[in-house]
Inverse folding.
């Protein structure tokens, strides 16, 4: 690398262009420090932006342009400056004319290779014919097979710096933050009108959030003369002294959404990098002011061509001399004021070319910087600075997001918002709306702020809002030569004409074809010029041509700010910490963290089949149902019959949607006369609760039923295996576990391991003799440890989700959502015996009736592979006649009990008969043969083990 | 079987040192910070369901959206009771650890003769309960909750349910000695998540953890 | 994000609710033809204008609501408890 490092080899720069103290300067000359720019050390004062510090040292080139890699310097000296986007340390795309310099910053130019001074890609400008308008669409198209190569080429030419992945993740995440705000009034823009509006609103009793993009309040007053500075300080004092105003500087309202939901980006905070403030405002006041627009002519991008506001900012805010000899193209008082500023600080003003008297600039020439200006009529002047003041753009984004339509006003030579179409909760004030003297702007701001508070709080009396006049301004967008329209995207006026010639005659099409207005400045500088040039080229007026649409975000925002800190609710069972301490691999299942396995799942399976195992099944959904009409509810929800269920009995049920699709299954037990406990699948718990409530609240509000979710009120443990009765017997104090007293599919309540209020179910998902224990959750860990402690001699061991999946698959128990999908109706899920079509209304009955009539539906079957060593992947297709897909494997595992694969599969009706041979196409392309089994269960199909 | 004292555990891991209070393992930490977070899960919690605006509501005398220290249906010594109107026709009654049987008895008595369906459910072990106290607690909550918590909107004694850190959470404003304080409760299994989210959000305000003390609520 | 006035909880941001779609009258499941039933299951008018829809206040009172909303302007002209009338 040629650019040196550490700043030791090259002597530090000196502030050769720094002016003596200026009345409105924002720099603190007592605090001086250095930072690095492309490896060299530069001095700066506190309050300098990166760009102002560099400009004070005479630096003029800050970047290379996007397509042609032309040298670019300051243009607007504001956040929007397209030529001042740099890399700061790890952070790309920093706006150097906005970001404050800090001691020790490592600032580098981005997107240049090998260096800012010698940019290889600058050769592009010699070959502009290769990068014509719409080059994205014309180049890199064919042959398609070369796309990977094209991508690599395009990447090199893309915008942007780089970010490293080295910063540790927690630190990176902590750099971003979010908060909510609910102010009565949000004022977007802290210029004179915005400040007046904020003060008036707060005085009328409203809470106010005043948002200013720059680092200080004041707007254009900041770089004004003595009167403006005095007025600004008075306004700042009022804002400070009025209670109820929260000021956010270096912040920007990114977007306005329905219900005045505002995204506000707050930068420059000490502890966080960026913070997204989600503000719900009762009234929004848009006081975004005006943005000065550049002028289009040959050489308009040369370093040394500056806007009048840029000159005034540099001179008055940062005490930087922008050049030695200036020519000024002025169409308005701001241009005249810039000329006066320059003269005051000793810059030679060679000439003021007045647009109002027919003046114009033809071109600027120079090698890497302005050297000579050619005026209308051919006069040539030597200079190193050309200042343009040719008009304004109203940044109407927030207003158009609220429904206002910008309309072109030829008298003012700019688009102005038609505020008659704004909703009642959005107002505008200041330059965005009209012109006027400072007093007129303040009066308008004050009345608007008062009105905003009135609309927000409905307390203050209404006061009339005066109208803002509009000052005439010459319509000047471009000179007689072609120049850059969009500096960020390197789009010239010639490119726009090419696009129009090629038939892209609508401004929206021209935008997309040339990418004009699509770069980092997002149209704020270039939109009006684009429209004016397209209008001229198509022979229409600007009004007829219209503008492109302004969409959020108003300013660029990092993905980090949008993402913010990670907040994704997590659920844990009372035993999860124990599982992790004992080597369980955590499994993320929806919001739950669960133990997948503690060791080899096959060993866990064998322990359950041969001895006893315990599994934490806390996430199993549990709904407490009370009331006389619970049986009616169960009859409605489940496809099977529920009217007669004695106290202490348990029944398995399946729920279908109204389309007949299986949505959940589980057991429900009757604990008392009007007290039932329903269990649901773990993943379906929340949805089933809402489903049950929806029927109770909408169709059956007269039913006397209360539903309370108690999923996490209980720690649930399944004790499974031939020795489960023996183990549980050692802990249960008041429940008779003998087979006759407590048969299969029954439920009891009692005291377990000294804990009252436990519910014990005799059910069996694993196919073994098993009990499911629900213990009050705060005692879950105690019960779990007691089971392990008391069962040591029985070789009890914990098993995880994977072992349970194998166990249930051996037993042929389906999992809703695994062996069924969003289209699986009950008769396709092996539930034929369960569905009672002769029952009165139940959810899904019409569709299931028709499904039963058709009989052509897919079926759930068990599969046994001819080669027992092959375990097909879940999702493997079943094929017939070589290639016709006729089903798929839904569940597949190696069974430690049988020593071969066990599978469930969805197959077409014709293949569902037991004994049918099917072909399974494996993921690697091989085919294997399998046979449809007699039963879904391949271990203990008669259920002798679980009824033991 | 010989049961030594069976202790209950909150879903929120106690900040060291651990101690046992009223049969619960709790944090013995004491903080004097201006903004503190306390795990109050050991408090007894009984859910009541009945018809909105019905006879049971009249007997409890607490409407949805309010929380009261007293209710004609319940007797409790001192400040040791909070009746929260947590939903339409839903209440949560909170009392010191171990009080659930007494609460159920009193509520059962209060429900006698009420013709509408009334359900009483001990959900002491089904909810995580956290208290956030300090003047800056609304600023902390504003980072995780979109609701306007301004004094005029959510005054002392307000009860509501909303999303806090994307989690459905019951929020009760229950100032203590004139200092802003909120009780937050959620499904037990998300208790640690909520606690961690609040602690993380409160870092910039210097939030600290202080242990549970059973006196009062 | 729209602010939907919940009759129980007051105005709340839309992300507290589940949007369950336009309300369509449920035919008598005992008598409905396949066409009628599937129209009920799958067909929606999807009007650009006033619609009657179902929302569920998931993060709040957990009540099902019948909402009349203008799908273009997002204006809401009535919100009522589901089952209390107002459904088509």
């Amino acid at each position: 690398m040629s650019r040196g490092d550490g700043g030791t080899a090259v002597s530090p720069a000196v502030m050769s262009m720094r002016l003596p103290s200026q009345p409105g300067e924002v720099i603190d000359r007592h605090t001086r420090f250095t930072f690095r720019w492309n490896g060299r050390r530069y001095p700066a004062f506190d309050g300098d932006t990166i760009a102002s510090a560099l400009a004070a040292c005479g630096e003029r080139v800050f970047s290379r342009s996007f397509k042609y890699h032309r040298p670019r310097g300051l243009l607007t000296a504001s956040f929007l400056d397209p030529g001042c986007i740099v890399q700061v340390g790890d952070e790309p795309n920093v706006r150097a004319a906005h970001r404050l310099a800090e001691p020790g910053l490592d600032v580098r130019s981005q997107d240049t290779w090998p260096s800012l001074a010698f940019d290889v890609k600058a050769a592009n400008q010699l070959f502009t014919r290769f990068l014509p308008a719409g080059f994205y669409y014309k180049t890199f198209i064919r042959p398609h097979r070369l796309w990977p190569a094209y991508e690599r080429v395009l990447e090199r030419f893309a915008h942007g710096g780089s970010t490293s992945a080295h910063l540790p993740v927690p630190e990176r995440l902590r750099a971003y933050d979010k908060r909510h705000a609910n102010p009565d009034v949000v004022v977007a823009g802290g210029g004179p009108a915005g400040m007046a509006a904020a003060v008036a609103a707060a005085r009328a009793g409203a809470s106010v959030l005043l948002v200013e993009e720059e680092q200080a309040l004041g707007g254009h007053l900041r770089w004004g003369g003595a009167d403006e500075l005095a007025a600004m300080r008075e306004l700042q004092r009022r804002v400070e002294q009025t209670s109820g105003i929260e000021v956010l500087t270096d912040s920007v309202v990114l977007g306005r959404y329905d219900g005045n939901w505002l995204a506000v980006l707050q930068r420059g905070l000490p502890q966080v990098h960026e913070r997204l403030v989600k503000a719900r405002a009762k009234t929004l006041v848009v006081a975004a002011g005006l943005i000065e627009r550049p002028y289009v002519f040959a050489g308009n991008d040369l370093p040394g061509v500056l806007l009048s506001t840029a000159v005034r900012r540099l001179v008055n805010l940062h005490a930087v001399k922008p050049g030695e000899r200036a020519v000024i193209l002025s169409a308005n008082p701001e241009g005249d004021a810039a000329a006066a500023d320059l003269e005051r600080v000793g810059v030679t003003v060679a000439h003021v070319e007045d647009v109002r008297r027919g003046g114009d600039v033809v071109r600027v020439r120079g090698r890497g910087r302005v050297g000579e200006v050619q005026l209308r009529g051919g006069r040539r002047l030597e200079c190193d600075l050309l200042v343009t003041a040719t008009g304004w753009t109203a940044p109407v984004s927030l207003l158009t997001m609220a429904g206002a339509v910008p309309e072109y006003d030829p008298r003012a030579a700019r688009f102005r918002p038609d505020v008659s179409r704004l909703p009642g909760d959005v107002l505008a004030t200041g330059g965005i709306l009209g012109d006027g003297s400072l007093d007129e702007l303040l009066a308008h701001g004050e009345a608007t702020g008062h009105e905003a508070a009135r609309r927000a709080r409905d307390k203050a009396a209404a006061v009339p809002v005066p109208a803002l006049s509009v000052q005439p301004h010459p319509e000047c967008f471009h000179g007689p030569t072609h120049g850059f329209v969009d500096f960020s995207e390197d789009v010239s006026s010639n490119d726009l004409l090419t696009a129009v010639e090629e038939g892209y005659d609508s401004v929206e099409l021209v935008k997309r074809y040339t990418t004009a207005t699509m770069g980092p400045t997002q149209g704020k500088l270039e939109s009006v010029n684009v429209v004016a040039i397209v209008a001229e080229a198509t022979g229409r007026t600007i009004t007829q041509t219209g503008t492109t649409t302004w969409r959020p975000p108003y300013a660029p925002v990092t993905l980090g700010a949008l993402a913010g800190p990670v907040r994704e609710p997590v659920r844990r069972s009372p035993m999860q910490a124990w599982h992790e301490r004992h080597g369980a691999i955590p499994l993320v299942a929806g919001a739950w963290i669960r133990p997948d396995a503690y060791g080899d799942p096959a060993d866990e399976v064998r322990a359950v089949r041969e001895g006893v195992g315990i599994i934490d099944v806390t996430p199993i959904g549990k709904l407490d149902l009370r009331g006389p009409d619970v049986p009616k509810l169960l009859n409605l929800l489940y496809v099977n019959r529920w009217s007669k269920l004695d106290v202490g009995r348990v029944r398995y049920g399946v729920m279908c949607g109204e389309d007949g699709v299986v949505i959940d299954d589980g057991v429900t037990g009757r604990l008392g006369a009007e007290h039932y406990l329903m269990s649901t699948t773990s993943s379906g718990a929340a949805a089933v609760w809402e489903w049950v409530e929806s029927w109770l609240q909408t169709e059956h509000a007269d039913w006397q039923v209360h539903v309370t979710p108690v999923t996490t009120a209980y720690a649930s443990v399944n004790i499974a295996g031939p020795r489960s009765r023996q183990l549980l017997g050692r802990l249960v104090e008041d429940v008779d576990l003998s087979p006759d007293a407590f048969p299969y599919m029954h439920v009891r309540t009692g005291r377990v391991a000294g804990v009252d209020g436990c519910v014990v179910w005799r059910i069996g998902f694993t196919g073994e003799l098993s009990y499911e224990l629900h213990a009050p959750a705060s005692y879950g860990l105690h019960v779990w440890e007691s089971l392990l402690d008391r069962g040591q001699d029985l070789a009890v061991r914990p098993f995880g989700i994977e072992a349970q999946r194998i166990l249930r698959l051996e037993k042929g128990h389906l999992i809703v959502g695994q062996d069924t999908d969003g289209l699986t109706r009950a008769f396709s899920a092996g539930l034929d015996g369960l569905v009672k079509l002769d029952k009165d209304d139940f959810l899904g009955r019409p569709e299931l009736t028709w499904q039963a009539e058709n009989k052509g539906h897919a079926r759930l079957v068990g599969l046994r592979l001819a080669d027992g060593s092959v375990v097909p992947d879940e999702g493997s297709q079943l094929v017939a006649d070589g290639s016709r897909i006729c089903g798929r494997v839904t569940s597949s595992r190696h069974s430690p009990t049988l020593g071969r694969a066990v599978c469930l599969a969805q197959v077409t009706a014709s293949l569902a008969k037991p004994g049918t041979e099917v072909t399974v196409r494996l993921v690697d392309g091989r085919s294997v043969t399998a046979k449809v089994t007699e039963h879904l269960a391949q271990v203990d199909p008669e259920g002798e083990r679980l009824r033991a | 079987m010989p049961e030594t004292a069976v202790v209950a555990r909150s879903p929120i891991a106690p900040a060291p040192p651990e101690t046992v209070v009223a049969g619960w393992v709790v944090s013995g930490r004491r903080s004097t910070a201006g903004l503190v977070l306390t795990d109050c899960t050991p408090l007894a919690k009984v859910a009541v369901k009945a018809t909105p605006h019905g006879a049971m509501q009249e007997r409890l005398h607490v409407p949805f959206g309010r929380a009261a220290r007293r209710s004609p249906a319940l007797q409790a010594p001192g400040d040791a009771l909070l009746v929260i109107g947590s939903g339409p026709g839903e209440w949560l009654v909170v009392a010191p650890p171990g009080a659930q049987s007494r609460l159920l008895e009193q509520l059962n008595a209060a429900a006698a003769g009420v013709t509408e369906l009334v359900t009483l459910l001990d959900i002491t072990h089904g909810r995580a309960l956290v208290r956030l106290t300090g003047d800056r607690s609304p600023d902390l909550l504003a980072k995780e909750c979109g609701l306007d918590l301004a004094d005029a909107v959510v005054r002392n004694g307000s009860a509501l349910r909303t999303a806090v850190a994307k989690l459905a959470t019951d929020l009760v404003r229950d100032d203590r000695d004139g200092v802003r304080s909120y009780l937050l409760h959620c499904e037990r299994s998300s208790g640690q998540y909520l606690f961690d989210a609040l602690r993380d959000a409160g870092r910039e305000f210097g939030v600290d953890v202080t242990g549970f003390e059973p006196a009062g609520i | 994000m729209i602010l939907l006035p919940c009759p129980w909880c007051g105005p709340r941001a839309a992300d507290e609710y589940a949007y369950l779609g336009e309300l369509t009258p449920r035919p008598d499941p005992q008598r409905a033809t396949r066409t009628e039933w599937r129209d009920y299951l799958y067909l929606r008018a999807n009007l650009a204008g006033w619609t009657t829809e179902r929302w569920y206040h998931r993060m709040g009172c957990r009540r099902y609501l019948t909402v009349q909303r203008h799908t273009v302007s997002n204006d809401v002209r009535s919100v009522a408890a589901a089952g209390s009338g107002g459904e088509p």
Notes: Chain A touches chain B through 52 residues (CB under 8 Å). Residues 647 and 670 of chain A are 5 Å apart (CA to CA). The first strand of chain A starts at residue 28 and ends at 37.
